[in-house]
Structure formats: C-alpha cells, structure tokens
Amino acid sequence: xxxxxxxxxxxxxxxxxxxxxxxxxxxxxxxxxxxxxxxxxxxxxxxxxxxxxxxxxxxxxxxxxxxxxxxxxxxxxxxxxxxxxxxxxxxxxxxxxxxxxxxxxx
Length: 106
Description:
By secondary structure, the chain is α+β, with helices and mostly antiparallel strands.
C-alpha cells in the first residue's frame, strides 16, 4: 500500500469514528396496574439517562406532567385522562415520542 493510500485510509477512518460512537435514544413506558405508568429512558450504547427531561403532554400541547428521569433513569406517573404522549428529550436529534396508545399494561 502506498503512503498516500495509507493516509487516505487513515483520514477516512478518522472521519467515520464519530459515527461509531453515536448512540440513539431509547424510551419505553409500561402501565403497572391501577393506572401507574413507568417510563425508562437511556441510549442504545447501554448508558442510562438520569436527569433527562421526560414530559407527559396532551394533544393540545399542554404539559400534563413535567418531569426528569431519576438516578435509575425512570419516571413514574398516574395515567392522565384523555389523549397524551410522552416526550423523552435528551437534546437535538435525541428525542423519542410515545403515544398513549402504545403504552401496554403489564
């Protein structure tokens, strides 16, 4: 392999390294009897998300339950009346929305 080919390969690998370190947001919510919903957030690399914003929002954009994930990357709340969605917001490009119809009972 020529010197210029090695340099080109090194530059290509260096340019792609941030992609290898990228992680996607993950959030799951389940109903645990008597209307309590527990949501757990984190990232695809296995890391948790303590302190990340997780809000429960009505379809008319009213924040019903403002919150942040606890040290265990979880938040629990009473199921609101009506239609709503859960917004896990870890910053630009790291947002997950879960509609109330997607929250299964255990």
